[in-house]
Each structure stands twice: as structure tokens, then as C-alpha cells.
Amino acid sequence: MSFPGPNQPPSNGGGNKTNGGNNPFTNPFSRNNDGKNGGNGANGNKSNGPRPFWQSPWLWVVVVALLAVTMFQLFAGAGSQTIDTKDGMQILNGNTVEYATIVDNTQQVKLKLSSDYSATDPDTGRTKNYGKNVQFYYTYAQSAAVVKAVQKADPAKGWTASMQQTSIWTYLLTSLLPFLIIFGLFWFLMSRMGGAAGGMFGMGGKKNSGKLLDGQTPTTKFSDVAGEDAAVQEVEEIKDFLKDPSRYKALGARIPRGVLLYGPPGTGKTLLARAIAGEAGVPFYSMAGSDFVEMFVGLGASRVRDLFDEAKKNAPAIIFIDEIDAVGRKRGGSGMSGGHDEREQTLNQLLVEMDGMGENKGIVIIAATNRPDVLDPALLRSGRFDRQITVNLPDKKGREAILRVHARNKKLAKDISLESLAQRTPGFSGADLENVLNEGAILAVRDKRKLITMDDLDEAIDRVMMGPAKKSKKYNDDDKRLVSYHEAGHAVIGIKLKDADMVQKVTIIPRGDAGGYNLMTPREEKYFHRKREYMAQITGLLGGRVAEELVFGEISAGAVNDIEKITKIAKAMVRVFGMSSLGPIQYADPQGNVFLGRDYNNGNNYSAGVAAEIDKEVRKIVDECYEDCKRILSENRDLLDLIANTLFEEETLTKEQIQNLVQYGTMTSPQEEEAKAAQEAEAEAAAEAETETKADDAEGSAKDEEAPKADDNEPQQAVTDEEMEAALKELTKR
User: Fold this and answer.
1) Which of 111, 347, 387, 543 is the most buried if burial means most Cβ atoms within 10 Å?
2) Res. 54: pLDDT tops 60
3) What's the CA angle centered on 432, arms 426 and 435, to 5 degrees?
4) DSSP labels for 139-203?
5) Cβ(506)–Cβ(491) below 8 Å
6) CATH code of 146's domain
7) Residue 395: closest CA among 425, 434, 370
């Protein structure tokens, strides 16, 4: 698939000719279509060319027809029923044979009878009708006896002896067909191994698998990229250069040839690359580093050439290579591969295309990787990847911005605070945050609700971090109390130790491989951590193990994950950060990543004596944190018991509930109790008022029913009085 150039109108490139030039039956060899497969566009890949003859449907129609004819000939003689040799010789002794044929080379006798032949099956006892055409076989030693029997039978219409001839089709089928099947299978397997490189040995197929996203220029904009303002600012100049290079050329500036985006997975490197192409309005070619690596040497390099040739036709354009470390690793590998290694050949071609003898005017290469440390230095130099941009995990502000982007199409409840959600998700990437909102939406649909609530998002965070809750897994009381004190120990350290992380949530509900966990977040996000902060982290991780020892007098295996983290932090403090008596000397790779091509011949760059000193310093750090943790928990034993017992009953405690336990000794504050009492009083008053209103309404309805009777009598009484007064006046006059 391809895009038209910037000054050319879009074209279907034959993609709509479903009944014309690309129809395999009306044009079986795809002639007169300029080598364009329907859908390749005006500048489509011409590597397909005319369709090979073996792909013509008419060829396969002929092959199927020939096979059908051959099979018919093979089974044409299937009309005669086979009988036993003994039964056949008995028939010859009778008078029912009209015609007989002896086939010498197959030791076969075919008989045409005057009436149907029937025989009883000795196994089943049933009688079977074999019809008038039967046959039987004999051995070579019986040949003379069979001929004499046929002669003696003297068939009414005669008899003959013949040699069965093998047809040319049968010969071809039996001799050549196995070879054709093997060759076809081999061809299929090699085509699959070659992948998109074009069939067996790269013949007859597409060499270039570079694809344009969505069949058009990406619609992603910088507004869709949140939480990476610094990275966006760095790449905006590339967008401006692609849209209007004249401003930069006026000052003698050239377009950057390449931009390397590196950072942890899920931070939006691919999204940022698409946004650059969307903002610039240029074609966007996307490939993965593994797409260049094939079985056969030279196919990867050929694919690189084809990709750049295609991009040049549509310049200005952007080529995006995801996971470039798959093809751009340091040359030499393990020191055992030769100079004809496929990956190295591909890398060499990529280096030449980026900054070789030719110029790639208007082409920008954007690459993304999680391992910049393993890339070849020749690939990272200026003139190839001129800019190397770090795409880090977002901070709190960035996480809130990312949540707002992904919440555009989500129906959230009014009480949801994205700021609070960002506070609770330190270390989450953009992909993790998108997954949190998606999991929350799924949970809301599962409960048949129309809005996503905070409880849904809270559960979603737990799912992303630890996996779904194992509600079916139940502890016995002893294990449940052990887990409660373990998690309470972590919580108490987080509350009482100044530099420890804040407790956001504590639960003893099993999730993943953990029997329970504490959600603890930094009090504030920092770029640089001090020694006391690392010590506080170790102390907090020791809280569970020390609590078990302090309360139960023994320890369990539940702290295995905590011990792993403790060891990692302590070793990094000594070997990487120089936070020990050994001084500012680094004894390990700060990145902690081993690359065979770099570290194959590298051993420890320190002596055995120094290794022993490192072990002592690591143990010293852990022992100091252990004693500090034990002191804090002993001094706050009442709080430890309170949180553990409450956790034993409730199983989950939120940040607010833990704060209330620390301040008031209960899960709810006095203010909350007063507010709850006030709400209950208001509810009771409202219920009483409603009851009184209903009684008044009922009394009013009763009066309304009596009122019409009184109204009916009043007019009659009034008329009677008037009549009586008039009558009295009349009597007085008289």
C-alpha cells in the first residue's frame, strides 16, 4: 500500500477494478495493469509485477481435470465383482458362462454370465448376489489349469487371453505425482519461511513489507499526546521543517535525518511518532525491527532498500522503525558470528541509507527502543540519529493529563477525581493508565451500571498492579491473622517513618501470587533520591517480616517478594550509587542490563576481596534498617494490633480509614459519626413529616366528601326563609 505524492491527487490505483484488469479469470496473468495489484495505489509497489503462470486459476483447473480423468481410468474397471478362486473354477464347470477373458500379466479371469451369480457368505450365513459380471484371480502355478478350465467351459460367445496395458496417464500419476507433491510441499514451506520477502528464495512476491498506516496519512495530533510535553516540544521542529522547510533552509539548517525515541514500554513512543506525521501531513511508513530479519542472507538489506525507495517516491515522508534494537544491535554479536550475518548486513544497509553516498531529501527516520544501550555506536552518531529523545514515565501532572485524554469517551461518575487517581498511580505508564480506565469500564458493564464509579477504578488499579482478586481463595483463621499482621506492619512503618511512602490502601484479599498487599505511594515525586529515602524504603519493606517475628515469634515465607526488593535496593546503593563506606566507586552496570555482544568477555571489574566488602556493606544496610523497623513497631504495638485486628475483620482498609484509626481509634471520625447521625435524624424527621402529610390528606379527603351534602341543603333553606318573610308581609298588610 502506498500514498500519492504531496502534489498528486489520491488514486485508487486499480484497487476498484474488481471485475476488470485484476480479475484472475478474465486476466489470469495480470497483464496490462502496469504491475500494480489492486489497492497498491498510484505509486504502489511494482515488485509484484505480472502474476506468475503457476498462480493462474486456469492452470489449476486443467490440472484438476487431468487428475479426474486419470482417476476415472484407474477405477473404470471397478464394475466387476470379485469372487473366490474356488467359486470361479466351479462356475467354469457349469453352463452359465457367456464370455471369458484371461488377463495373463495380472493372473485375472473376467467372466460374463448368462444369469446372476449368488453365493453364501460362510461368516455371516447371508446370501450375496454378485451380478452377471464377476472376476477372480489365480496364481502363476495355476495358469495351465485355468486355461484348460476355460477351454472346457466353452463359453457361448467365446473367450480371449490378453495382456493389460498401462495408460500414459496412469504412468504419469504413479511415477510423477509423488515428486510433484514433494516439490509443492517444499515450495510452500520455503514460501512461508521467506515471509513477506516474496516466496521461495525471494522470488515472485513482495519484497517490501513497509506499510502506510490506515492507508492514508495518520490523523493523530499532538493534542492526543499527553504527559510528554518536553518530548513533544523537541519534535515540533521536525513537523515544522516537513511542512515548511524554506524557513530553515534560509539559515542553512538541514532537516534532522533521524530521531531516536527511547524509554520504558508503554510511554507513547509510537504514538508520538504518529503524531509527528499527522501534524506534518506526510506519509507515515511503519515497520518493526524484526520485519527486516529473515532466514536468507540479503533479504533484510533488500527490504531496507525497497523501503527507502518507496519513501523517496512520496517525499517528504516519515519512516518509523519500532523496536530498532532487533536489527540495530552492536555489530560483532557474541564475537562468534562472521561478517555475513543477516542482521549485520541489514544494519550496514540501514547505515548507508541513513547517511551514505546518496541523500534522502525530505525523509526523516524515527526509531523507538527500550534498550538504547545495545545499539551500535555508528547508528547513534550525529548525521544519522541527530536527536535522541527520552520518553520517560509521566509524573503526577502528566498522568492526570493522560487520564483526561483517555477519559474523553468514558462515562464517568461526577464524584471521580482524576487528580486523586493520578496521585494513586505513580510509576504507571500511559498504556497502564489507559488500561485502568478500560478495566473500570468493563467492571461497570459487568455490574450493569451506566456510569464508571470510583470503586470501579479502585478495583481496576488493583487489577493492573496485582491481577484480579481471588475471592474464592479463603484463609483459615491462623493464616488470615498472620497476613493481617504482615500487612499491618508495612502500614505502621509507612505511617510513623517520615521518609517512607504513604499508605493508600491495605488489603488481605489474595491477588496474583500475593496473599495481600499495601498500596504505598511517595509523599512527593522526586527526580533524585537520597540515601535516607532508600533506607526508608528498605525499612518499609521489612515491616511485614518484623511484625510476624514480633507478634508470633516466628517468620513465614510470605515476605519473599519483599526480600527480593530489599536485596536489589541495597546492592544498588553499594554497587551503583556509591552510598557506602566503599566510596564513590561503581562496581556494576548502572543500567543492570546484560548484552552478550558487550559483556561476553567482561568479568567482574573488582577483586574477590572487594566482593566480600560489598557483601558486608549490603548486610550492614539491611541490618540497620531491620533494627530501625523493629524499634518503630515495638513502640507502636498498640497501633499495630489495632490495624491488624481491624484488617482481620474488614479485609480492606482505605487511606481515610487508616487515618481515622490512627487519630480516633475507629474507622470513622467523630465528624463522620455526627454527620451520619444528622442524616439519620433528617431521614426520621422526613419520614414523620411524610406520615403526617398522608394523615392530613386523608382527613381532608373525608371532609371533601361531606361538603357537597351541606352545599345542596343551603340553597333550599335560603329560599324557604324568603318565602316565609314575603308571606308574613302579605299577612300584615291585610
Assistant:
1) 543
2) no
3) 135
4) -GGGHHHHHHHHHHH--TT-EEEE-PPPPHHHHHHHHTHHHHHHHHHHHHHHHHHHGGGTSGGG-
5) yes
6) 3.30.720.210
7) 425
- Are 225 and 294 found together in one domain? yes
Confidence (pTM): 0.61
Q: Which residue has the higher pLDDT, 39 or 398?
A: 398
Active site residue 487: yes
Q: What is d(CA 95, CA 115) in angstroms, rounded to the nearest whole number? A: 10
Closest CA to 482 of 511, 512, 515: 515
Regarding whether 277 and 134 lie in a shared domain, the answer is no
Decide: residue 579, CB within 10 A, 0-12 exposed, 13-18 middle, 19+ buried: buried
Helix (H, G, I), strand (E, B) or coil at 287: strand
Residue 172 belongs to a domain: no
Residue after which a domain boundary falls, among 37, 56, 78: 78
Element counts in the chain: helices (H) and strands (E): 23, 14
Please tell me the distance from the alpha carbon of residue 497 to that of residue 542, in angstroms, as a whole number. 13
Q: What are the tens digits of pLDDT across the range 96-133?
A: 888 888 887 778 888 888 888 888 877 787 888 888 88
| Same domain membership, residue 147 and residue 66 | no
Same-domain pairing of 12 and 102? no
Q: Is residue 706 part of a domain?
A: no
Angle, helices 637-650 vs 477-496, to 10°: value is 130
The boundaries of the domain holding residue 249 are: 211-390
- Residue 118 CA to residue 113 CA, distance in Å, equals 12
> Which member of 487, 673, 688, 723 is catalytic?
487
Q: Residues 655-710: pLDDT tens digits?
A: 888 888 888 888 777 776 666 667 777 777 777 777 767 666 666 665 555 555 44
User: Are β-strands 127-137 and 81-82 bridged in parallel, bridged antiparallel, or unpaired?
Assistant: parallel
CATH number of the domain that 434 lies in? Answer: 1.10.8.60
Of the candidate ranges 71-80, 313-322, 582-591, the one whose mean pLDDT is the lowest: 71-80
Where do we find the cell 511512602?
Answer: 501
Q: 586 and 497 share a domain?
A: yes
Could you give the number of structural domains in the chain?
Answer: 5
Which of 390, 419, 446 is a domain's end point?
390
- Do 433 and 490 share a structural domain? no
| CA-wise closest residue to 256 among 357, 179, 155, 363 | 363
Q: Give CA–CA dist 360/157, Å, rounded.
A: 90
Could you tell me if 163 and 103 are in contact, meaning their C-beta atoms sit under 8 angstroms apart? yes
